[in-house]
Amino acid sequence: MRAATIAIFSQLLGAAFSLAAPQLAGRVTGLGHRPVADATVVLLPDLAVTRTDSAGCYALTPSGYSAFQLHVSAPHMLAQRQRVAVETGGAAVDVQLAPGDENADGRLDLLDAIALVQRFGPVAANDPLDADGNGALSAQDLEVWYDTCWQAEGHWRSFVLLDDAEHAGPAVVYPPQGRWQTHKDQGSTTLPAPGVAVTPSAGGYLSSRAYQFRYVLGSTVQNPFALIRFLFGQNDQVTFDARAYEGFAVALRGEGQPLIVSLKSAVTSDDWAEYFVRIPEVPREWRVYEFDFRQDFHQPSWGQRESSEDVLRTLQAVQFKADESSRDRALSLWIDNLLFYGRLYEPPTTQVNVRVAEQGQPLPAAVVTIDGLDCRRQALSDLRGEVLFPAVPAGSYRLWAWRPGYATDTLALQVEGQERLDLGSLGARRLIPVPKPLSRGPVRVVNGRLEVDFDGDTVY
């Protein structure tokens, strides 16, 4: 009877505890606030693990009421980590994941941006991803969420897709008046249709279409040339300000021939003064090239010298030109997925200054610790009691100082990306050890040994 009563009481107690235990629940979404199914959700330090359902929802039961770290990850997406506090009534935490390794090659790079455009090209009506409401995923839409979602260190902050060749006519993605065009010398160089807007052909890079540029570079003139170029308007007099971009990426496939990639600008004196970079050999398999505007391109030693900023300010065309060494050869060059990428996003950091002092006097050689979720640093105070932490990322931190015989209270602070944060003086107090009495009775030393009369009866 007693055992049964205990068992029933235990069941009731367990049921009551399960009802009282707080729950952490929420929803995981991705691009365009679409639910992310089968995402892994981990709660530390409990190491409680669950996965989201088809609606992106999850639920966990922490072990107590405290602060936790919530880790959320999903295939091909950027993992998210944040601190959460679970109170008596539980907590609701929604998490938005940004696109990451879209092409599953183990890297985060511009290929992922290209794959993203191809995967989310058409969107449904009133889709929150369609920022400009034109019924399709565009460069402007990508700019919106890249600037808000994909701001992780080492990833491109923004980009503009110029063309992915996934259309039947000569139109390009951006700008609306842009076009591809071929051009050649006045000699024996042959092109299928020089000067005419080029339309895509079958066989793209990870897609169905690309531009095929066929040419035979002649030898009847001193400087023969054949090129295909991306224009920002109906002709090569329309300029585009590209100073906000770091460089461009493009997918190329050839027949082993060398290639000159150049930037045509309104400020260069002639075609031979353009900024250029030379590719020794365009492989027969597709390859993605990334070119930095300010580091990879060079200007010939002849002609008028212009700064790269002036060239980018008045950019007229991106050109792919046959190298003179490939004369009298029938060659083809395939081009796909041309995009300009933005400058790298650099998370804001703050210089944190603090002074350790005891009753107004500097306390040197104190170990000062600043501790946050993703950043923990320590430094010794100098002779003035001062410590400088030069580049602290934004976030919540605890800060304290310690030196043998001294200690300070723990200071909670919020770093919000401001240039400088002066915390003033962190007051230290002297730690004076107070000996505790061993007993209420007397103490004596016998033959070097300490003896204590604990109960006061004179018997040691």
Sequence-ordered SSE layout with sheet pairings:
Elements: H1 2-20, E1 24-29, E2 40-44, E3 48-51, E4 57-60, E5 67-73, E6 80-85, E7 91-92, E8 95-96, H2 110-119, H3 139-149, E9 159-163, E10 179-184, E11 201-202, E12 209-216, E13 226-231, E14 245-253, E15 259-265, E16 275-279, E17 287-292, H4 308-313, E18 315-322, E19 330-342, E20 349-358, E21 361-362, E22 367-372, E23 376-380, E24 386-393, E25 395-403, E26 406-408, E27 411-415, E28 420-430, E29 443-446, E30 449-452
Parallel strand pairs: 1-7, 1-8, 20-28
Antiparallel strand pairs: 1-4, 2-3, 2-5, 5-6, 9-19, 10-13, 11-12, 12-19, 13-18, 14-17, 14-19, 15-16, 15-18, 20-21, 20-24, 22-23, 22-25, 25-26, 25-27, 26-28, 29-30
Can you walk me through this structure?
By secondary structure, the protein is mainly beta. Helix content is 10%, strand content 39%. The chain is built from four helices and 30 strands. It has helices at residues 2-20, 110-119, 139-149, 308-313; strands spanning 24-29, 40-44, 48-51, 57-60, 67-73, 80-85, 91-92, 95-96, 159-163, 179-184, 201-202, 209-216, 226-231, 245-253, 259-265, 275-279, 287-292, 315-322, 330-342, 349-358, 361-362, 367-372, 376-380, 386-393, 395-403, 406-408, 411-415, 420-430, 443-446, 449-452. Strands 20, 21, 22, 23, 24, 25, 26, 27 and 28 form a nine-stranded mixed sheet that branches. Strands 9, 11, 12, 14, 17 and 19 form a six-stranded antiparallel sheet that branches. A hairpin with a 3-residue loop joins strand 22 (367-372) and strand 23. The longest helix has 19 residues, at 2-20. It is elongated, with a radius of gyration of 34 Å. Residues 1-19, 148-157 and 434-441 have low confidence and may be disordered.
